[in-house]
Design goal:
Blueprint lengths: L49 E5 L7 E4 L8 E6 L19 E6 L13 E5 L5 H5 L4 E9 L4 E8 L6 E5 L18 E6 L12 E8 L16 E10 L5 E9 L7 E3 L7 E8 L5 E10 L4 E4 L3 E3 L4 E5 L11 E10 L15 E6 L2 E3 L8 E2 L6 E9 L3 E9 L12 E9 L6 E6 L3 E2 L8 E12 L3 E9 L6 E6 L5 E5 L4 E4 L2 E3 L1 E4 L13 E7 L6 E8 L3 E9 L4 E9 L2 E8 L6 E8 L4 E8 L1
Parallel strand pairs: 13-20
Antiparallel strand pairs: 1-11, 2-5, 3-4, 4-11, 5-10, 6-9, 6-11, 7-8, 7-10, 12-14, 14-18, 15-16, 15-17, 15-19, 19-20, 21-34, 22-30, 23-29, 23-31, 24-28, 24-34, 25-26, 25-27, 25-29, 30-33, 31-32, 35-36, 36-39, 37-38, 37-40, 40-41
Amino acid sequence: MKKQILFLCLILASSTIWSQKDLRIPSMDELLSEEKQIIKAPLEKDLGVTIWSDNFDDPATWTIDNNGLGGVEYGWNINDVSEGWYSSAGINSTSGGNYAELVNGDPIAGTQELDVTFTMTTVDPIDVIGLAGTNQVTLEFEQYGARFNDLQQILISTDGVIFEPIGDNLDKPVLSQSGGSAYPNPDLKQINLGTILTATNDPIWIRFSWTTNYPGSSTNPNVWVTYGWYIDDVKLVTNPDHDLEITDTYWGTEGLYYYRIPTTQVAPIDFQVSVFNGGIETQNNTQLNVDINSGVFTGTSDPASVAPLDTVDLTLSTQFTPPASTMNYTVTQSISSDSTDDVPSNNQISNVTFYVTDYIYARDNNDPSGSTSNGTDGFEVGNLFDIWNDQELKALTVRLPGGTNGATVGTEFYMKLYSLDPNTGDFVYEMESDPIIVETNMLNQNLTIPLVSPVFLLANTTYLAVAGCYTEGFRVSNAGGSVPQTSFFFDWSNETWYYTTSTPMIRMDFDPTIGIEENNINIQVGSVFPNPTSEEAVLKLYLANASVLDITVTDLYGKVISSNTMNSQAGQNEYLVNTKELTSGLYCIYINDGVNTITRKFTKQ
């Protein structure tokens, strides 16, 4: 059963704090200036009856509104020549010949137009019900291009004046130097209109619209950059009789999925799919079928009937709990029903492979693709982890990308651990590493970074493990995708948490031998948090034995601000630093256990 996670921390006046970090505006430095070579994708067979089509052979069947701009450099144009800066060949459509193309200047030359919306609309309305005798039809078209900061929408209208959006390309990844890809050439886009049109619907106009996805930043030239959008072979096709389509898949434990699970943290795993019936007939005895390691475990969901245009969640009736021993697992999933599916290509589920390991806890799929950065600003990025059994954590791991767009050698970074307050949703500081300087031999490697002192993780508690820096030049590799609000990004420039749907390669490492050479040191001290601080801060300390600590706070010139004696127990302790009355500046804290003296610095803002 997927859990719902509510985050309330760091609430500001803005309503976009918990927004998706993917929505940060990519800069021109991130834009790829060279078109990627795309292999033509095989198109799904057309099982329905085409009741209307247009392949742009006659441009007069479309009305174009290019905001009063002339020439082929701006807005929509219909011909057989690619006019844009990105693709020299245009779209490899089925019909060939003319196609529609969206252009907005050349971003390399800086000629993109700002504050524009370009539309292309059918001249005549289409009587769908009269042509098909039913509202069970699908709008489909072939497209090519890529997404940057643009909003590519499809809309319909019953009066030619008021248009309602029925689809877009926001499900496509952003293409930049950080990753992403262009669309397949061509890409078949299908929008089932059965849930939108009524059985007595008026005729409709179809519109394709392009503008920025960031209207609040419309003065920024980057939000008006487009690779281009190519469209051809627009059709209205009646729906097939039997068509189950998988619209969502989920596997994991309480909302989080792990590709590597330490033997100490194994827990029951759920499997679920969402199935949409895009056909005309009800699909009976629809089930999810799961097989793990060719018969080691098999299971099914309870059978369900899926009415036309309905969506049903199919959840495995029995959870799978791996044994607490190292093993590789491959999961094969499929759906079945009493009817033979007319379009089986849209209900295939990719195999899942995960591992039970000795010590590593990982949310990423170990296949680096792209990276996370924050331009010239510092940031933190990482993943949530659920802990099911009490366990001591000594280290986190991170992968830093190399190459042209990799982490900059010489950049200072750190690892940090937060716990999640279940009542408020706040991220609560637990511990961090000492600062690390990026070296060449660290790039494209999984680095194990010890925390300043071990942290005893509590069962049934959620933690956030991150890597971070305060300056530019730092990047963290991504591998796979995350469900919203399970991986997070903290922007130091506005001190705001966002969620990200990319999975950063940040892991927990429970290897008990990490830092074993330090076990004879009685005291280990974390960093002051928060830092900078305004009213108070916390210093976390870990002691091998109960001790009396002398704690002294001085200013930058050595003047003693406060001096206290603290009776500390073995294990983790906290010391509260009251900074409310201090003037702005740099301060030092000296911690002495009678043998060693450790210094930590903080800034009062």
